[in-house]
Specification:
Mean pLDDT: 91
CATH class: Alpha Beta
Order of helices and strands: HEEEEEEHEEHEHE
Number of domains: 1
Low-confidence stretches: 1-7
Number of strands: 10
Strand order of the largest sheet: 5-4-10-7-9
Strand content: 25-35%
Largest sheet: 5 strands, mixed
Radius of gyration: 13 Å
CATH superfamily: MTH938-like
Oligomer: single chain
């Protein structure tokens, strides 16, 4: 296995967050991020339109990538971001475990969950 492959498949550990940023053992991000079940990390709206205060159904489906991974949603430093009703209905209908919490609490939840897992983190409000 190549070093790059090991890097991508290692489990993401979240270290800290504050208003407008989140830090993993890999890097510090100055924007919302998503972590896919395969542990890839992207900025949340990388090339895609979206409303940072609403987690949409399309976003949930994209992040889960057809898996039934557990999903953690960080709703911002003060918990302002909301999960769209249709996204929450989709998760419940498909029996996908998910937790929504303010981002500082959500990073702790994410770190403790077993794989497979995915996450969406809003890092402001």
């Amino acid at each position: 296995m190549t070093r790059a492959k090991e890097f991508l498949t290692s489990v993401v550990k979240l270290k800290a967050t504050g208003f407008g940023w989140i830090e993993t053992e890999r890097s510090r991000f100055q924007s919302d991020i998503v972590i896919y079940p395969d542990q890839r990390i992207e900025t949340r709206f990388q090339g895609r339109p979206g409303d940072s205060h609403t987690i949409s159904l399309n976003e949930v489906k994209r992040v889960l990538a057809g898996t039934r991974a557990r999903l953690v949603i960080g709703s911002g430093q003060d918990g302002i971001a909301q999960v769209a009703a249709e996204a929450e209905d989709y998760l419940k209908k498909n029996s996908i475990e998910f937790q929504v919490a303010p981002t500082p609490e959500a990073i702790l939840i994410y770190n403790q969950l077993p794989e497979p897992k995915a996450a969406i983190f809003h890092v402001t409000c």
